Amino acid sequence: MARYLTKRILNMIPLLFIVTLLSFGIMQLAPGGPEYVILSAEADAMSDPQQVEALREKWGLNDPVHIQYFRWVGNMLQGDFGKSYYYRLPVKEVLASALPNTIRLNFFALVLIYAISIPLGVISAVRQYSKTDMIVTATAFAGQAAPSFWVASLLIWGVAMNSGGLIPTNGISTPGITFETYGWLSVLADRAKYMFLPLIVIVFGGLTGLTRYMRSSMLEVLREDYVRTARAKGLAEKVVIYKHALRNAVLPILAVSGGLLSSLVGGSVIIENVFSWPGIGRVAWQAVNNRDYNVSMAVMLLSAVLTMIGYLLVDIAYVWVDPRIKYD
Amino acid sequence: MAAPHLNTEAEEQLQGLAREESQFRQFVRRFARNKLAVVGLVILIIFYAVAIFAPFIASEPLDARVNLAERFQPPGSPGHPLGTDNLGRDLLSRMIWGSRISLSVGFVAMGVAVLLGTLVGSIAGYYGGTWIDIILMRIAEAIDVIPVFFLLVTVVSVLEPSVYNIMIVIGLTSWPGLAYIVRGQFLSLRQRDFTEASRAMGATDARLIFRHILPNAVAPIIVSATLRIGGAILSEAGLSFLGLGAPPPAVSWGQILSVSRTFLKQAPWLMFWPGLAIFITVLAFNFVGDGIRDALDPKLKR
Question: B residues 156-185 near A, CB within 8 Å?
Answer without folding.
Answer: 157-160
